[in-house]
Amino acid sequence: INLTLEQFEVTNLIGINAPILGFFNLTLTNLALYSIVLLFLTLGLHFVSSNNRKLVPSKWSIALESSFASINTMVRDQIGTANEVYLPFIYSLFFFIIIANLTGNVPYTYTITTSI
């Protein structure tokens, strides 16, 4: 078991240092890895809850439709109907952050919102 504060450190997992166009450094950190995993969790949640050719919606579909309606109402009230083009971004950001914070409840996992 690691020390308590070691779980918040951003560490390099894979790094590529190439002398192309000056100094080119491409690294995969634990922050990027957890972000990719959370992205796939968010996409998976939405793909699982989609109602492809079903007449009666599932419980997950109803929950996501309700959250979309709530976020849509908040966006309309705050930024107006003329700026609804930002709704998909705000909806995606909301679910990414909420899933990131919920995975932070698992012991000894890295919470990406600590590095913002």
From TrEMBL:
InterPro entries: ATP_synth_F0_asu (IPR000568), ATP_synth_F0_asu_bact/mt (IPR045083), F0_ATP_A_sf (IPR035908). Its main location: mitochondrion. The chain crosses the membrane at residues 31-49, 85-104. It holds the Pfam family ATP-synt_A. One of its GO terms (cellular component) is mitochondrial inner membrane. Keywords: ATP synthesis, CF(0), Hydrogen ion transport, Hydrolase, Ion transport, Membrane, Mitochondrion, Transmembrane, Transmembrane helix, Transport. GO terms for molecular function: hydrolase activity; proton-transporting ATP synthase activity, rotational mechanism. It is found in: Mitochondrion inner membrane. It is a multi-pass membrane protein. SUPFAM superfamilies: F1F0 ATP synthase subunit A. Belongs to the ATPase A chain family. This is ATP synthase subunit a.
